[in-house]
UniProtKB/TrEMBL annotation, chains A, B:
UniProt-listed Pfam families: Pyridox_ox_2
Phylogenetic placement of the source organism: Bacteria, Pseudomonadati, Pseudomonadota, Alphaproteobacteria, Hyphomicrobiales
Name recorded for this polypeptide: Nitroimidazol reductase NimA-like FMN-containing flavoprotein (Pyridoxamine 5'-phosphate oxidase superfamily)
InterPro entries tied to this protein: Pyridox_Oxase-rel (IPR024747), Split_barrel_FMN-bd (IPR012349)
Residue intervals passing through the bilayer: none
Region listing for Disordered, in residue ranges: 1-28
Compositional bias per record (Basic residues), positions renumbered to this chain: 19-28
Amino acid sequence: MADHYPPDAKTYPTTERTRVRRSPKRGSHAHADVHAILDASPLCHVGYVIDGAPYVTPTLHWREGDHVYWHGSSASRFLRAAEDMPVCLTCSIIDGYVLARSAFNHSVNYRSAMVFGTARLVDDVEEKTDALRHLIEDLFPDRWDSLRPMTKQEVKATSVMRMKIDEASAKIRNGPPGDMDEADHPVWAGVLPIESRLVSPQPAPGLRDGMELPQSLADLIQSGRLR
Amino acid sequence: MADHYPPDAKTYPTTERTRVRRSPKRGSHAHADVHAILDASPLCHVGYVIDGAPYVTPTLHWREGDHVYWHGSSASRFLRAAEDMPVCLTCSIIDGYVLARSAFNHSVNYRSAMVFGTARLVDDVEEKTDALRHLIEDLFPDRWDSLRPMTKQEVKATSVMRMKIDEASAKIRNGPPGDMDEADHPVWAGVLPIESRLVSPQPAPGLRDGMELPQSLADLIQSGRLR
Ligand SMILES: Cc1cc2nc3c(=O)[nH]c(=O)nc-3n(C[C@H](O)[C@H](O)[C@H](O)COP(=O)(O)OP(=O)(O)OC[C@H]3O[C@@H](n4cnc5c(N)ncnc54)[C@H](O)[C@@H]3O)c2cc1C
Ligand SMILES: Cc1cc2nc3c(=O)[nH]c(=O)nc-3n(C[C@H](O)[C@H](O)[C@H](O)COP(=O)(O)OP(=O)(O)OC[C@H]3O[C@@H](n4cnc5c(N)ncnc54)[C@H](O)[C@@H]3O)c2cc1C
Ligand code: HEM
Ligand code: HEM
C-alpha cells in the first residue's frame, strides 16, 4: 500500500515491532492510512499491562496530528495504569465478510490501525479543556458552544490521556475472495458488505419545546460516516 | 444487572480483577450477559504481552460454552505469543451516541465483554477441524458442506486457539442521557443510534452460472444481525 504514495509522503518508521509480516501487501506505515482509520471510527481498544498481565479496554479516541487522545474518570484504573507506560491502541473497522469456495479462503474486508507509544496525562487545565472541546467537536461539529458550560469540578473529575504515536501500522483488506482458480466449485461466493451508520435520532424524554435536531447532526447522520 | 437473574443463574466469579468499579450498575458477571455480547459480534480485540509491552490484535472469535476460540496462521506472531499465556479478549459494540445538555454528561450506548484466561493451542487435528467448522457454521449456517473440502496442508497451515474463560465481565449502557435535571438548557439532546448491518451482497467476479445467494445468507442479511 505504501507504494501508492509519493516518496516524500510522511510515514511512521517501519520497526521490528511494526513491520507487517503476515500479508505485508495489506500493510502500510503512511500517516495518511493510519490517520484515516483512526479518524473513521470513534472506538478503539487500549492495551496496557498490570502486574505483567494484559488488559484491553474499549474507549473513545480522537487525534490531533500524530497524537491520539482518550478520556475518562480521574479515578479510572485503566487511565491510571496507562500513565507513563507503553500502550498499544488499536482501531478496527469490519467492512464485510468474504465468502470463498473453500473454508480456507474465507476472510473479512477490514481496515485497522495499531499505534504504539507512551501514554501521558494531560495536566494543564487549559490543555485539558481544549482537548475535551476537540472530543465533542470532532464528533458533533458546532455543539460545544451550545452546551451548558463545563464546571471546574467536572474538569477535575476528568482525565485526558495523550499519546504521541511513536510507531504505527495500518492494515487493509478489500475486494472479492482470492480464489479465482476454484471459481468452478458450485457454491455462492462473494462479499457480504457490513455498514455501520447512524440512524433515526431519538430525542431525550423531557426535551425542551422547540429544540429541533441541529442541521450539523442531520448532516452527520446523512453522511453515512460515524464522524 | 446481575440482579435481574434468578439466584441460581450461572455467573463468572467476581474477582479483584473483574469487579466493575466504575458505574458498577452497568456491570454483570452473568454467563447470559457475557455470552450474548461475545455471540453478537464476530470481532474481538486480543490483548497479549511481548517483552513486557502490550499488543492488541483484532481478530474473529467464536464461542462454545465457556470457551472462546480464534484462528490464524500457524506462523502468526500473535497466535504464538499468546500460547499458554494470560490473555484479555475484549468484544465491544457501540450502539449509539448519547448527547446531553452538558459536555460532561455525553456518553455512548454500548455492550462490551472482557474475558480473561490462558490461551491454548488446539493440537488435535480432529478438534481443530471441528473448531474451524464451527467458525464457518456460526457465521454462515449450512455453508460448510457445500464448500470445497479442506486439505491436510490447509489444516496444517492454520492454528486455532482455545481459551477457557476463567474470569469475565460484561458492561452495558443504554437509554437516554442522564441529565433530566438540566432539561431546561436550550440544546437538542437525545440518542443517535448506530446500527451495524449486512447490506446488498456482491457476487464474486467469475461466479459460476446459476449460483444464487443461498436462502440462509439471505435470511442472515434480513435479520439485521451480524451472526
Ligand atoms: C464503545 C465504548 C466506548 C467507551 N468510551 C469510553 C470513554 O470514552 N471513556 C471512558 O472512561 N470509558 C469509556 N468506556 C467504558 C470503558 O470501557 C471502561 O468501562 C471505563 O473506562 C472504566 O474503566 P476502568 O478500568 O476504570 O474500570 P474498572 O471498573 O476499574 O474495571 C475493573 C474491571 O471491570 C470490568 N470492566 C471495566 N470496563 C469494562 C467494559 N467496558 N466491559 C466489560 N467489563 C469491563 C473488567 O473486568 C475490569 O477488569 C467505553 C466503553 C465502550 C464499550
Ligand atoms: C476485522 C478484522 C478481523 C480479522 N480477523 C482475523 C482472523 O480471524 N484471523 C487472523 O489470523 N487474522 C485476522 N485479522 C488480521 C489480524 O489482525 C492480524 O493482522 C493477523 O492475525 C496477523 O497477526 P500477526 O501478529 O501474526 O502479524 P504480524 O505481521 O507478525 O504483526 C507485526 C506487526 O504488523 C502490524 N500489524 C499486524 N496486524 C495488524 C493489523 N490488523 N492492523 C494494523 N497493523 C497490524 C503491527 O504493527 C504488528 O506489530 C483480522 C483483522 C481485522 C481488522
Ligand atoms: C476452515 C476455515 C478457515 C481456515 C482453515 C482459515 C485459515 C486461515 C489462515 C491460515 C490464516 C492466516 C493467513 C496469514 O496470515 O497468512 C487466516 C487468516 C484469516 N482468516 Fe481464516 N480460515 C478459515 C475461515 C475463516 C473465515 C470463515 C473467515 C471469515 C469469514 C476467516 C477470516 C480470516 C481473516 C480476516 C484472516 C486474516 C487475514 C489477514 O491477515 O489479512 N477465516 N485464516
Ligand atoms: C467535555 C467533555 C467530557 C467530559 C468532561 C467527560 C467526562 C467523563 C468522565 C469523568 C467519565 C468517567 C465516568 C466514570 O467512570 O465514573 C467519562 C466517561 C465516559 N465518557 Fe465522557 N466526558 C466528556 C465527553 C464525552 C463525550 C462527547 C462522549 C461520547 C459522546 C463521552 C463518552 C463517555 C463514555 C462512554 C464514558 C464511559 C462511561 C461508562 O463507564 O459507562 N464523553 N467521561
